[in-house]
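pinning this so it doesn't scroll away 📌
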Amino acid sequence: MTKLGQWLCGLALLGSAWAALALAPPGLRLPAPYRQALLPLPVYLLVAFGCYSLATVGYRLATFNDCEEAAAELREHISAARADLRRRGLRF
């Protein structure tokens, strides 16, 4: 199962549990404080997921490794490509 499939299965499981509790089946009576906390729960989870995503992207950006060897190799390729284009008559 792919990661997307895992996330979708987890989301479907949580969503169905939330819907089952929020719709209040006839045999189940939730106390008012629980019901008041249950109804905005998807919004809270969405905000928490957004904060987690932002923190993850920020952390990965802060700890990104520079590849000096790859950058030098890329500069060499660019120089070779420019020289080849100049030889063929293209001007920059």
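📌 and the second one:
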Amino acid sequence: MALYSAAAAVLEGLERGDGGIKTLVYNSRFPHVRQLYALVSETLRYSPVLEKLLAGAALLRAEKKLPPQLAKVLVYDLLFGKGLKCGGRWKALARRHRARLEAELARLKVQQKVSRNEDLLAPARAASPGASQVPRYVRVNTLKTCVDDVIDFFKRQGYSYLGKAASVEELRALSGKKFLLDLHLPELLVFPPQTDFHDSLLYTSGHIILQDKASCLPAFLLGPAAGSHVIDACAAPGNKTSHLAAILKNKGQIFAFDVDTKRLATMNTMLTRAGVTGFQLAQQDFLTVDPGDPKYSKVTHILLDPSCSGSGMVNRVPREEAAPSAERLQALAGFQRKVLSHALSFPALRRLVYSTCSLHQEENEDVVRAVLQERGSAFRLVNAFPSWPCRGLAAFPGAESCLRASPADTLTHGFFVAVLERHGEGAAAPSSLPAAAEENPQHGEGTKAGAAPKKKRRKKQRVK
């Protein structure tokens, strides 16, 4: 049963946009990763067929407690895989419906005039547009090591280091065993697309984090100074939380919230592996957190990356997706406005980053505009990261202060980031750079493109 549950959890994570298939499989803690990866991949490959079979056999209507992704995994293995070698009570449930499912499969073959199961599959689909051109980004975990040591490690593994990139075009031209230091983010290494480090010692030991460049922007732009109290409002799977901890240098306090027990368990494992301390995980809906609770009286920074349509996620595994309906977009935007407004109600808050992996204006600029109007002059939008090439859509005056990202323009997943700061008496003057960046010029705009990173001696665990 553990195999099927783990596969269903990975499929659910893909649906939410938590990460790529390999990352989710390796973070699942399932002991046989190759077996799990194969089952997930094949279930995804047969997904359109499985959806037709489930609908035709009315399985989900008959078994209301059966989660949809688990149903897909069970039906795949029952009809196309190894015949349900494990599964406990779910195995018995699926077998009760075997005759109906097999009849539906036979009917589908007749309708499509094919005789083999494989012939039901559509011609091989390409991965999402842009998937083949998005590089592999590797964030160096400065809680355990430093950029120079990681560069030396990869050089000893036969990779050729080309220095700091001067343009996005240099990233686009990467091939073979060559890599660069990113031109925008100082602790991000860039390798050619499809480079796989899931089996690397550096990854399994937490010295590096496999994280898309756009996903690194929120914590970088929030940039809390060491010692700050920070909230990560919708935290799982934890990459941004670990990035915050690195920026804080493990000095301060991070309050991380998520409603899903399994996601929090995975996140706890990931943070521990990354050497993160000074964090509190809570299985709680952030909307139910009381801003007036004394525990949060010193919270000055909030990272808010709420549930969204995930329309900006680049899929390295081919799968069919329908564009979200207008009703779903409005429902998501309503939730996003509510949670952003709630976050701004924390009394000591000075700086907030709102981000999504969505391409839709309804979830991005429209949410920011609505909440800023609601809040009056208490908060204002910061012109974040002026050198970033892609800006917000012209939905309202000042929207160009927001950041956007896309596979075509920035060689990343599609993403949106807005930085808000408290405005008014006693508030600090707005800055286009986070506090951590101003403390360390290597993080800021003053770093010249193409310049080599300065050598820094750090008492970290050396990677051998």
